[in-house]
User: Fold this.
Amino acid sequence: MTRQSKIVITSGVAALVIIIGAAIGFSLSSAKKNASPTTTTTTSTTTSTTSSTTTVPPTTAPAGTPLPSGFEPESATFVSSTVGFVLGISNCAGSPCLTIARTQDGGKTWLAIPAPNVPLAQGPLLTTNSSAVSRIRFVNILDGYLYGPSLYSTHDGGTTWHKVTLSGAPNSYGINSLETNGTTTYLIAGNPNTALPGADLLYSSPATQDAFTQLAQPAFSPGWLPRVVTNPYGTLVAVNDNKGDLYYQATGTTQWTHLNPNCLNGIPTNPAVALASPVTGSSDPQIILACGGDAGAGTQEKTIVKSGNLTTFTTTSGQPPLGGILGAIASPDGNTIAVTASSGATFLYLSTNGGATWKTVISSATFGGAPIHDLGFTTNTQGFAIEGNATNAGLVSSNFIMTHNGGVTWQQVTF
Assistant:
């Protein structure tokens, strides 16, 4: 679903920093917590807080319990090369239940941690249930978020979850995009259930608190479903318009800079953007933008443009194959670039030389061309993604996949 909406951000200025696909590592800890193995849900105590509430977390995270049967993954996030979380749905005492799986050994073994008693959706725009969630992001082993369209936070590793209310946002609004860089969390709230124009609102909060403040407005142009992207060096809001407009803010500043890469001379239909580590001698992140051209018969021209100085955008000498409609992009260092696409099949394309040449590393019709999403890299070699969507507990309609060689090969993770 696409939606044309204008971002309106009216009050308050906060320090901005956001993280993209993979997060920053923090010290790890765990604590003993008793629970029965597979017949009991992993539902935590859930309370409501406002966006001005500060939560004082404990120093340990729950130990975890065996995963319930039939776990199907929907969303993933890693906070280091060893600690990661996957959101999905399971069979709990004969009924479907929201489930969060946590690993502390890089994906080799998984345990369940408590989750709020709310429904699972397949993306913020794919539900009419305002209480549902579809995406997971963690800052460290203690502080995390579930969103899309509802918003819940935990600051004790999932032992308790709190529904967060945003000051100034209409009750009909949901969370369409949320990312964190380990210090600050950013989100974009909007109306998730309509294709009519609306006003999207940008908020930020310290990552260890639920203190979301509406941010001052850069001059965003109208577009479809703006996204926030971040890493420790800076933050981008990408406006999905016909120019690939970007708005950038360096870490520790309040000034937004309008960047217009103007990829494909104004005809991209669904651009995707990633931030990578700076080039040598720079303190600004690299920007890697994938622009999708006119699509037809399950194919689409995909153009990759890059900038290492926030000023000059250069089209890479090679481009990903035509197969599939552009989905996501991720890059840890500007050299390794992964791009996803889908149509009748699911594709993942990879360049290991900055976009000069490309190869197809995944071409699968397993889920009827379902998209790959939550694509990210934890290190230059370790990456992860979700293929497909969790439609029902025990019904194999999605896979969690990981790479340990920079995206050259990917393996399905068994929970």
About this structure: Residues 1-43, 45-55 have pLDDT under 50 and may be disordered. The longest strand covers residues 286-296. The radius of gyration is 20 Å. DSSP finds no helices and 30 strands in the chain.
